[in-house]
Amino acid sequence: MTVGQSVRYIDAKERITGQIEYVLNMELPGMLYAKVLRSPFPHARIVEIDTSEAEKLPGVFTILTGADLLNDPEVRARFGPVYRDQGIVAVDKARFVGDAVAAVAAIDLDTAEEALDLIYVEYEELPAVFTPDEALAPGAALVHEKVMRRETSFADIILRAEDGSNIGNHFKLRKGDVEIGFAEADHIFEDTFSTPASQHVTMEPHVCVAQVDNSKNVTCWTSTQTPYIVRAQLAETFKAPQSQVRVIVPTLGGGYGAKTYPKIEPLTAMLAYKSGRPVKLTLTRAEDLISITKHAATIRMKTGIKADGTIVAREVESYWNAGAYADISPRLIKNGGYASPGPYKIPHVKVDSYAVYTNLPPAGAFRGYGVAQGAWAYETQMDMMAERLGIEPLEFRMKNFIGKGDTFATGEVVHEPMFSTLTQASADWIGWGKSSTPSNGSKRRGKGVTCIIKGTVTPSTSAALMRLNPDGSCTVLTSTVEMGQGSKTVFTQMIGEAFGLPPEKIKIVDPDTDITPYDLTTSSSRSTFSMGTALMMAGEDAKQQLRQAASDLLEAAPEDLEVVDGLVQVKGSPERSLTLAQVISKGRLGTVYGNGTFTTKGGIDPETGQGIASVHWHQAAAAAEVEVDIETGKVDILRLQTSLYTGKTINPINAELQSEGSVIFGQGKAVLEEMLYDNGQMINANLADYMVPSFLDVPADLGVALFEDHSPDAEAHGIGETTLPPVPPAIGNAIYNAVGVRLQHLPITPEKVLRALREKEQNKAETAS
Amino acid sequence: MKQTIVLRVNGQDHQLEVKSYHTLLWVLRDHLKLFGVREGCGVGMCGACTALIDGHPVSTCLLFPAQVQGKEIVTIEGLAENGDLHPIQEAFIERTGFQCSFCTPGFILTTKALLEEHPNASEEEIREYLAGNLCRCGSYVKIMDSVKLAQQRLNGGKDS
After folding, report:
1. How many helices (H) and strands (E) does chain B have?
2. What is the mean pLDDT of the segment spanning A22-39?
3. Which CATH architecture has domain A296-401+414-457+606-763?
4. Best exposed site among A220, A441, A602, A750 by fewest CB in 10 Å?
5. 3-class DSSP state for residue B92?
6. Does residue A423 sit in helix, strand or coil?
């Protein structure tokens, strides 16, 4: 059970027998079931709500409206991770189709649903805005009249938002002077790219069970990636100290960013508080699809290049559709903003990215965290510019990649730059430069290659506790959420190796804020690195105590003792040793607690975006070979490969598995997924109309290559998201290479390909005549 | 409207009082507490609620209990025999054919039906047969490895 080996999931048996516990399975005695009444209008003032008929329905315990929230001095009506802009249920206006307007807790779901029909709401419809263009037009309807600021602990966020505007935040980056850069350039290219709103589609929806006693002790079992942030929110909501709030998180049926930050927890807990009973709220698929989305983004990219192909300046202006509530948009547009110039050494860079409120479902964290939208723009433009300049696209990238000692857009030197190696590896894998034969006369084949850079949230803190029990077994206490990424397995490997313990003697406890110590979040590809480092510090702390205690017992100085193979022994004299259990019992230690806290340092200047944006960098390349049917526009992805830098790999098969998942996520974004709206109403809010990749979509030839650092002090790099962002532009570039049509707006559907092919034919015919 | 029905699930008969409009999925979870059957979409598109009805994989969100009286219903909880995991379950563990595992019971049950119907299914046939089960974590490559390992063992072959 050592680090670097492909170890099976430690909880595999529970998983393949269906026994693993999700919040979805939870039931408590006396528990009520909740349903939410949702707005049919994208933007409407709530004039009146009459719940009297619904209250009379037998089995209805509680109905919650905005008035209840405003009239109770014991609670706060609004919540949100950065701005407190979202009513637990709407307190003044409904801001998107599906916004919570009232909620019911009843004896069973049928009764709760019936009660919804008996609630009368009078709305006054207001003009709505759906795109950043509409939202920023003069005289546009305001989604929020005022910025609902809250004290934030988000050290890395700079907030620029003003009353009377739909701009939720503005991120700025200035490196060098783009005007000088463009003046030096021989060619300037300006192109616009867009990506639509799409969704995470965690197979387990958002689900929460909450209980609040009459002293406002809150207990909340919830499917969240951020137990400590949910705890802080609930403490604020109930005006109670955080010690009074307990958030417990069993394993998740998928997260991908959808379950970061408070979502349905304040509402569920408020119903529990009002009813005095435990309450469970489970979103339906249709509700879950509009609970949080990936940001639709429009990105204008202007790039200045010298005649020899050197990029000298890049200006990026991006607009992110944040939807009706800010959620984590203010931070996301920062990470998406600084990443958008790409993995290239560019002396002059200017970035402006804007989060824009609209009357659509709120957008938030999504696997890749803003990097995928930018990568779609810069990696597509790289190929477009290479063609205009007559340079081979791989060579063009190689010429401009950040290398050793070069600085990124944030001005920081990128440690361990691997872009050239990764991109070459991916290109080689698909036989770059060699043509292959299409399967029949209407098919054309093509290849594309891309590369990306991604950061991780910095600064951030993770704390770990490990407890050695009297029998020498070990209990690991962390607030890292197991959501299928295999964190429990990885932590078991790390502790197993550090102490020489077999996996059956190690238990990893699920997050419980009464018991497990602080962690910022299980996201941002950070757990193996951040929590893993904290856990190793905790291990070192425990070892020191063991050496100290064993010193008398083994008659040796603590520094002459070592902990190996589940023993404390005198270095060089393995016959003089004690088991961990012997040291604990003979030393009368009771239990041994090892404590570790790891904090990364960094931060960027609010005006220039210069500084340390990320403690280290995630890097990946992708290569695709496609076959396009020119008669139908259908694209078959024949081969899809990604190469990524993992630093020190803890569990190769697990790393491969998670990366393959990211690739398939990327493929879904490239060719399938898009939330469609009609006047703000999602019109494909079910899995028959909103497509996610199935077995038939995934290329038979799908590869992932891990590139490692084999030096002894190598550190683990997060890999949870890295191979997603390079995939869509690799597919887009391959399609262009195959049939010569350039699509700048995702997803690339057969309809769009066919339309573009027809337009191309028409243009050709017109030019000829 | 309540009705009394008898369902044979995992080899045992259960007499149940159910509401006539509740789905088989609801009854398996809510009445029988078989939590390996899960709702992912509610419209028969994801396969997370799969059970075997007389050996065939079916989305239980699309059925009413009255439709399956007298039939043999098997959920993931009924797959292990005498406490031993089914060879397909063993193969999914060994080849890591899952991540969050919300969809896993559905994949395993569908695989069981596939390998009974088509013991020598090709990769293409496996993909086709499992296309009604969605794995959002995207573990498809390792699921394929798991299915092929199970196939090999069930056909009496040695591990490669």
Report:
1. 5, 5
2. 98
3. 2-Layer Sandwich (3.30)
4. A441
5. helix
6. helix
Would B159 be classed as within a structural domain?
no
> What is the per-residue pLDDT for A161?
84
CB atoms within 10 A of CB A665: 29
**Would the pTM count as exceeding 0.90?**
yes
ipTM of the complex model:
0.97
Assign a CATH topology to domain A461-599.
Answer: Aldehyde Oxidoreductase; domain 4 (3.30.365)
Residue that finishes a domain, picked among B77, B97, B121:
B77
Q: Which domain holds residue B145?
A: 87-154
b/e per residue A735-759 (b: at least 16 CB within 10 A): bbbbbebbbbebbbbeebbbebbee
**pLDDT tens for each residue of A660-689:** 999 999 999 999 999 999 999 999 999 999
Parallel/antiparallel/unpaired status of strands A474-477 and A506-509 = parallel
A380, two tokens:
């597509």
At A668, the amino acid letter reads G
Q: Are the beta carbons of B127 and A695 separated by less than 8 Å?
A: yes
Are the C-beta atoms of A494 and A534 separated by less than 8 Å?
no
Q: Confidence band (pLDDT; 50, 70, 90) for A117?
A: very high
- Residue A157's pLDDT is 72
Pick from B89, B99, B130: CB nearest A695: B130
Residue partners of A605: CB distance under 8 A and separation at least 6: A611
User: Which residue in this structure is represented by tokens 């700048």?
Assistant: A744
The reply to whether residue B36 touches residue A18, judged by beta carbons under 8 angstroms, is yes
3-state helix, strand, coil in chain A (%, to 5): 30, 30, 45
Q: Inter-chain contact B76–A17, Cβ cutoff 8 Å?
A: yes
Q: What is the pLDDT of residue A1?
A: 56
User: Is the CATH code 3.90.1170.50 the one for domain A12-126+206-282?
Assistant: yes
Q: Which residues of A touch B35 (CB under 8 A)?
A: 18, 22, 24-25
How distant is the Cα of B7 from the closest Cα of chain A, in angstroms? 20
Q: Residue B97 sits in a domain of what CATH number?
A: 1.10.150.120
Beta carbons of A695 and B100 less than 8 Å apart = no
**What pLDDT score does A156 carry?**
64
Helices (H), A118-223: 132-136, 178-184
Who contacts A596 (Cβ-Cβ below 8 Å, separation ≥6)?
A463, A464, A465, A533, A534, A535, A536, A537, A538, A539, A540, A541
Q: Using one digit for the tens of pLDDT, what is the confidence trace for B5-30?
A: 999 999 999 999 999 999 999 999 99
Tens digit of each residue's pLDDT (9 = 90 or more) over A60-103: 999 999 999 999 999 999 999 999 999 999 999 999 999 999 99
